[in-house]
């Protein structure tokens, strides 16, 4: 049964480790979820999944749209809109159009361009392209990116100055970049558009932050992050994407249904606690 806790949950691409999109949509539906986040192509993976490109394969796009329709799943977020140094976001207009074709509610961006002012300008370009296609845009921050923390991200969102350009709050990135639930609670809720949920130790066990973030996070509730306090500080209506790559479990032969099923169950328990507060 789809209760209130389930209405908000999605699965993020990092969590499925290259699972092709039609199977990915089926996995989400089998777990009782209404949402998935999609990227247009998968990174190479060691798990035997074929490579795919929703950008280049029109037949696969049609199959994915049909799967979304038939299984009652919506694309909560289109990922992969990465700003590189010197790049013009208008070059991604085709990708924006494909995300709109897939029915995405928003696209997500990060920047590796060290020029912060230029990044803000290009965020505005992407937000305009997305809005013309009927979508919002979210901005993700993380240690190691040009926009590495919450204060910088807030400044960027305010500089773009569009109601459809809002923050993505990733629980691991938030805490590891030095911010607290109290800082989240102080933000105008209208500036926050999406949540990504995972757990992690407070003290890293993997020296490379991006390796840890991309491959080895923890099931919600099994690490040290103050997840309940963070979720309590965030708007209640937002979609919560489970971004929980568990490479060690996948390497051990644990399949995506079991891996993600544990994450969904854990997220439901957290949200059930939130509902009774």
Overview in brief:
With 277 residues, the protein is an alpha/beta fold. It has helices spanning 13-16, 21-30, 58-71, 93-101, 116-132, 150-160, 171-176, 181-185, 209-215, 227-233, 247-251, 256-275, and strands at residues 9-11, 35-39, 74-83, 106-111, 136-140, 165-170, 192-197, 240-242.
Explained architecture:
With 277 residues, the protein is an alpha/beta fold. The chain is built from twelve helices and eight strands. It has helices at residues 13-16, 21-30, 58-71, 93-101, 116-132, 150-160, 171-176, 181-185, 209-215, 227-233, 247-251, 256-275, and strands at 9-11, 35-39, 74-83, 106-111, 136-140, 165-170, 192-197, 240-242. Helix 2 (21-30) runs parallel beside helix 3 (58-71). The two termini are 22 Å apart. The model has no long low-confidence stretch (mean pLDDT 95).
């Amino acid at each position: 049964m789809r209760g209130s806790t389930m209405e908000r949950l999605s699965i993020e691409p990092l969590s499925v480790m290259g699972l092709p999109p039609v199977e990915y949509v089926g996995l989400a539906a089998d777990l009782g979820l209404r949402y998935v986040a999609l990227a247009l192509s998968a990174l190479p993976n060691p798990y035997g999944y074929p490579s795919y490109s929703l950008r280049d394969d029109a037949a696969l796009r049609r199959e994915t749209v049909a799967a979304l329709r038939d299984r009652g799943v919506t694309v909560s977020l289109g990922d992969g809109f990465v700003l590189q140094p010197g790049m013009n976001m208008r070059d991604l207009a085709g990708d924006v159009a494909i995300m709109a074709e897939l029915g995405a509610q928003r696209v997500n961006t990060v920047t590796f361009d060290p020029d912060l002012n230029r990044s803000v300008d290009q965020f505005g370009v992407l937000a305009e392209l997305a809005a013309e296609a009927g979508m919002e845009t979210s901005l993700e921050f993380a240690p190691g990116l040009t926009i590495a923390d919450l204060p910088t991200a807030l400044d960027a969102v305010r500089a773009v100055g569009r109601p459809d350009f809002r923050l993505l709050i990733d629980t691991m990135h938030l805490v590891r970049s030095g911010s607290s639930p109290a800082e989240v609670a102080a933000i105008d809720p209208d500036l926050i558009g999406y949540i990504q949920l995972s757990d992690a130790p407070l003290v890293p066990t993997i020296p490379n932050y991006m390796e840890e973030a991309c491959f080895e996070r923890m099931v919600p509730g099994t690490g040290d992050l103050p997840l309940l306090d963070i979720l309590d500080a965030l708007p209640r209506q937002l979609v919560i994407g489970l971004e929980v790559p568990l490479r060690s479990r996948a390497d051990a032969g644990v399949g995506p249904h079991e891996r993600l099923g544990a994450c969904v169950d854990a997220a439901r328990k957290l949200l059930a606690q939130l509902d009774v507060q």
